[in-house]
Every structure is written in structure tokens, then in C-alpha cells.
């Protein structure tokens, strides 16, 4: 046994020594050639690997590079206006506040839902409108409203001056807007008188008019009103009065319900009586050669033109 072990040991030592010797005997050029061949094989394999990249990695890389989808935006809810401050109740508790309106539908709904939103809003608006109360059969129907007629003024005053009227102040009464009557007093520097009349007029801002008047002046003493009157004429001026009627066409300008300015002209018929003719004749006879036995008062009738200007004011 010891001989075999020693033989094996000696055999292994001899192989090792032969290999070392063989390695010592290999030339250096062969080593470099082998290393070059190995490097060339490695470069060729690497080039083939780079030239054909794996197909399975591309979709994975695309999936990794694609951004993740964003979540849908939250629905827009309008900010509710601050509720007005309500007074506290009888026990100091705040009054109940009105509920906030529901939020609007989000804009991401489909066209069908968007079309249904106005219909729902219209239904909600109709639901909030209170139903009109129908009158019962027992309650009387209210009359339809009508425009109130324009009220005309019926009372007024007139101030005028003219011939043969003198100065006049009259009260007017207008039963209709196209007709009026008047009654007033006159003054002509000798005495006072009265006058009445009626007029027909077109109720417009500039309008024609037709007027009929009648007046009378009471007897007055005019003998001392004028200077230069002969003495034999003065007795006949101690009682002067006359009566007249007039027809006039006029033009009126102004608001027919408030203020009217007018001018009129026409024809007048005048009656007067001359008194103290006998006294005047006797005074004349004393200064002359003739005598007067008797003389009566004279009645005079005249037709003269007339004219008048004035204004009217209505107040009621």
C-alpha cells in the first residue's frame, strides 16, 4: 500500500512537472492570438445583442413613460350669498335660515342630461309660482280698470275792458267744456252796472269763440266828471245810464282748463234816455230870446261797434 501511494504521488508530481514544462515551452505569440480570438468573439456577440433589442421591453417602456390620466374635476358649486341677519326669536334663538339651492349639474354630463337640466329648472320655477286664486261664484267680479276722464274746471273769473262795457269783473260757470255763462259787474267812471252773457267756444289752445252779452248801467251823475262842459248841458248829464246788448266774435288763446287770454269785436245795440231836457232848455232860454214851454226826456237808440280785451282764470 505504501508503495502504491508513493507511486501515485510520484505520478502526480510527474504530471504537474510536465504541465509546467509544457507551459513553459508554449510560445507567447500563441497566447496573444488566443486572447485576440476571445476578444473578437465577445465583441461580435455584443454587437448582435445591441443590433436586435428585445421587443417585449418597448411596450413596457411606453407604459412607464405615458402619464397617468388625471381625475375628473370636482363639480362647480356657486358660492352662496351670505344670508341676511335675522332677528332673534322671542326666546333669543336665531330664526331658521332658508335652505341653500341645490348645486348645479356638473358640465361633464352627457347631452341628454344637459337637455334635461332646463326642463327640470322650468318645472321647479313653475312649482314655486303660487296658483292664481279663482274668484268664487258668490264674490262679484271686479270691473276692468279704465282711464279716468280728465276733469274740467267749472268755475272761474273774467277781467276785461272795452266799449261800451267799460271795465268788467265777472264770475264764470262752465257746465260743459264748450259752453260757459257769466255774470258780473261793470264800471264806466260815471256809475256801476251789471252784465250777463253766454259763450260758445272750441275747447282748444287757440280757438274761436262766439259771445252774446247784455248789460245795464244805472243812472249816474256825469256833470262833474268832465271839465269844459257848458252850463246849459250839465243838467242833462246829471242822470246818465244806458242798456246794451252785444254780439261778438273772438279769439281765445291759452290752456282751456286754466288760463285764457281773449280779444273780441262785434256790434252793440244801445238804449239811453236823456233826462232834464226841459231844465237844460230853460237855462238856454234865459240866455237867449226864445222861451220853452215844455220838454220831455229824450230816448236815444244807437248801433255802435264794440271791442273788448281780457283774460279768464279757472280755479275749480
List keywords for this structure.
single chain; about 325 residues; alpha+beta; 8 strands; disordered N terminus
What can be said about this structure in brief?
This protein has 316 residues and is of the alpha+beta class. The chain is built from 5 helices and 8 strands; from the N terminus they run ααααβββββββαβ.
What's the multimeric state? single chain
CATH T-level fold name of the domain at 155-314: Porin
Shape: rod-shaped
Name of the CATH first level of the domain at 155-314: Mainly Beta
- Distance N to C terminus: 168 Å
β-strand number: 8
Record the strand order, biggest sheet: 1-2-3-4-5-6-7-8
Mean pLDDT level: 73
In CATH, the architecture of the domain at 155-314 is: Beta Barrel
Can you describe this structure?
This protein is of the alpha+beta class and 316 residues long. It has a domain at 155-314: Porin, CATH 2.40.160. Helix content is 27%, strand content 33%. It contains five helices and eight strands. The protein has an eight-stranded antiparallel β-barrel with strand order 1-2-3-4-5-6-7-8. 13% of the residues are buried.
Topology:
Blueprint: H1 2-25, H2 28-51, H3 57-65, H4 111-128, E1 155-163, E2 166-176, E3 179-187, E4 192-201, E5 206-220, E6 240-255, E7 259-274, H5 277-286, E8 298-314
Amino acid at each position: 500500500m505504501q508503495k502504491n501511494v508513493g507511486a501515485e504521488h510520484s505520478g502526480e508530481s510527474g504530471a504537474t512537472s510536465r504541465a509546467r514544462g509544457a507551459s513553459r515551452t508554449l510560445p507567447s505569440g500563441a497566447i496573444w492570438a488566443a486572447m485576440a480570438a476571445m476578444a473578437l468573439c465577445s465583441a461580435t456577440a455584443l454587437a448582435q445583442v445591441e443590433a436586435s433589442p428585445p421587443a417585449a421591453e418597448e411596450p413596457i417602456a411606453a407604459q412607464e413613460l405615458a402619464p397617468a390620466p388625471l381625475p375628473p374635476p370636482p363639480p362647480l358649486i356657486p358660492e352662496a350669498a351670505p344670508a341676511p341677519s335675522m332677528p332673534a326669536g322671542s326666546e333669543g334663538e336665531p330664526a331658521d335660515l332658508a335652505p341653500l339651492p341645490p348645486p348645479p349639474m356638473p358640465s361633464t354630463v352627457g347631452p341628454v342630461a344637459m337637455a334635461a337640466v332646463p326642463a327640470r329648472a322650468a318645472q321647479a320655477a313653475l312649482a314655486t309660482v303660487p296658483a292664481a286664486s279663482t274668484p268664487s261664484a258668490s264674490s262679484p267680479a271686479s270691473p276692468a280698470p279704465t282711464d279716468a276722464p280728465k276733469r274740467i274746471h267749472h268755475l272761474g273769473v273774467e277781467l276785461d275792458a272795452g266799449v261800451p262795457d267799460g271795465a268788467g269783473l265777472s264770475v264764470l260757470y262752465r257746465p260743459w267744456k264748450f259752453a260757459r255763462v257769466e255774470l258780473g259787474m261793470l264800471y264806466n267812471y260815471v256809475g256801476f252796472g251789471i252784465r250777463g252773457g253766454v259763450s260758445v267756444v272750441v275747447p282748444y289752445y287757440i280757438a274761436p269763440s262766439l259771445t252774446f252779452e247784455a248789460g245795464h248801467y244805472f243812472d249816474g251823475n256825469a256833470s262833474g266828471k268832465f271839465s269844459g262842459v257848458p252850463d246849459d248841458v250839465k243838467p242833462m248829464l246829471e242822470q246818465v245810464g244806458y242798456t246794451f246788448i252785444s254780439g261778438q266774435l273772438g279769439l281765445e288763446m291759452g290752456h282751456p282748463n286754466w288760463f285764457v287770454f281773449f280779444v273780441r269785436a262785434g256790434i252793440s245795440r244801445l238804449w239811453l234816455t236823456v233826462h232834464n231836457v226841459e231844465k237844460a232848455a230853460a237855462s238856454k232860454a234865459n240866455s237867449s230870446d226864445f222861451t220853452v214851454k215844455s220838454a220831455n226826456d229824450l230816448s236815444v237808440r244807437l248801433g255802435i261797434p264794440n271791442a273788448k280785451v281780457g283774460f279768464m282764470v279757472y280755479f275749480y
